[in-house]
Amino acid sequence: MARRPYHREPEAVRQHDLIEATLECIAEFGLAGTTVREVALKAGITPGLIRRYFHTKERLVEAAYAKLSADMTATINEAVGEGAAALRLARFIRANLTAPLVDSKTLSLWAAFISAVNTDAAMAAIHRDGYRGFRKNVETLIYDLTVERGLTPISSLIHSQSIAVNALIDGLWIEFSISPEEFNSIDVVAFAQECGARLLGLDPNQLKD
Amino acid sequence: MARRPYHREPEAVRQHDLIEATLECIAEFGLAGTTVREVALKAGITPGLIRRYFHTKERLVEAAYAKLSADMTATINEAVGEGAAALRLARFIRANLTAPLVDSKTLSLWAAFISAVNTDAAMAAIHRDGYRGFRKNVETLIYDLTVERGLTPISSLIHSQSIAVNALIDGLWIEFSISPEEFNSIDVVAFAQECGARLLGLDPNQLKD
DNA sequence: GTGACAATTATTCAAGCGTATAATTCAAAA
DNA sequence: TTTTGAATTATACGCTTGAATAATTGTCAC
Q: Model confidence over A69-121: pLDDT tens digits?
C-alpha cells in the first residue's frame, strides 16, 4: 500500500486550495453532500490536514462563503472601473449579468449559503457584511449619477432607487443564471440597462456602455 | 421501556404530515441537517414508517419541494382573484411582498431547493414546472393589462416585460425576506407597485390596489 | 369470533461522518 | 551530523446516517 507522497505547501496556499475545493464541493454536491473527505480529495491533501488550517468544518464553510462574497464584489468593482457615473452604472449592470457572475455553479453556491443564513449566526454575519457593501456600491453609483445629472440628491430617494435597481439586477441574475435557455431571445445586459434607466427616470438608452 | 402507542392514519394524512415536517426541518436545519429521524419526530411517527410512503429520503424532499412550489403559487393565485387587469397585477405584487410569502423560513426553504436544482435532475424538473407556471401568470397579467389599455399586444414585448417585472418582484422578495430591517422606512408593496408601473410605462399610481 | 393482512413500531446493519490521535517525513537549527 | 519540531499522512474512534428487517398491533372480511 503506497503511501501518499509527502508534500509541503505554505499556509496561504493550503488555505486557498482548501477554500477553493470547498466551493467546488458545495457547488457540485450541495452543502449536504460536502464532506471533509471530499474537500480533502479535491484539494489534493489528506482529510486530517484540514483541521490544522480550519478548526472545524463549519469554519471552513464560513471562510468559503466569505471568499465567494469577496470575489463577487471584487469582480464587479473591477468591471465598474472609473469614469462618468452613467457609464459606471452601465458597466455595473453588465458585470452582474455576464460571466463569471452568471454561472449555474455560482448560483448554486449563493443559494446554498443563503439557505444557511437563517440557521447559522456566523453565516448571517458574513452575509450582512457582504450585502451591505454590495448595496452601498449601488447607492454610491446612483448618488453620483444624480449629481451628474445636476439634480439635488435626496437621500431617501437614492435609498429607494438603489433598492429597486438592486432588486431588478438580483432578480435578473437569478433567473438568467438558473435557466439561461429562457432568455436566448433577449440581450439581457442591454435589457437590464434599459430597465434600470426606466426605474431611475432616465431615457431608455442613457445607461449603455 | 414503554412502546409508542400504535396509531393509524389515512395515507393522505400521513403523506401531508410527512411533507409538512420535512419543510419545517429544512427551514430550521437546512438540507444538510434534515434527517429521516428528525422528520419522523416532527411528524409524530417512527422513522421506519417514512419508507412506506416515500421510497427514499430523496423522494420525500422532492415531494416537499413540489408542495412548497404549489403552495406559493396557490397563495398568489388566491390573492389575485378576479377583476381589472391593473387591479389583479397590483394584488399580485402585494401577495408576493407580504406574508405568508415574505418569511425568513420560506426564503430559507426556497434557497435550499434552488441550490439543489443544479445537483439533482429531479429537483430541476420540479423547479422548471413551478417556475414556468409562475412566470406564465405574470405574462397573462401583463397581456390582459395591455389589452385593457387598448394597446396591441406584441408577444415579444409582453415576454420581456414579464421578465422584468418578475425579476423586480423576485429581487425585492428575496431582499425583503432576508433582511426586513433594512426596509423599515419603506412601504415595500406600494414601492414595488410604483416600480412595476415604471417598468411597464404606466403612471406610477396606476398599479395600486 | 378469528385468522389473515396491512400498518406501525422497534431493532439492526453497514456505511459514512467529523474528529482525534498516532505514525511518518522532511527541513532547518544546533 | 544529529536532533528537533512542525507539517503531513495514516489510522482509529464514536456517532449518526439512510435503509432493511423483525416484531407487534389493530382492522376487517369471513
A: 999 999 999 999 999 999 999 999 999 999 999 999 999 999 999 999 999 99
pLDDT tens digit string along B173-197? 999 999 998 898 899 999 999 999 9
From the CA of B15, how many Å to the C1' of C7? 14
A163, A117, A118, A123: which is closest to A139 by C-alpha? A163
**Predicted confidence (pLDDT) at residue B1 exceeds the cutoff of 70:** no
Sign of torsion over alpha carbons B23, B170, B119, A131: negative
Q: Which amino acid is at A139?
A: E
Query: From the list B115, B164, B167, which residue is nearest A108 (CB)?
Result: B115
pLDDT tens string A24-83: 999 999 999 999 999 999 999 999 999 999 999 999 999 999 999 999 999 999 999 999
Q: How far is the CA of B53 from the C1' of C4 (A)?
A: 23
Place of cell 411533507: B19
Q: State the pTM of this model.
A: 0.95
Q: Which are the contacts of A147, defined by CB distance < 8 A and separation ≥ 6?
A: A85, A153
Find the CB nearest B31 among A32, A199, A201. A32
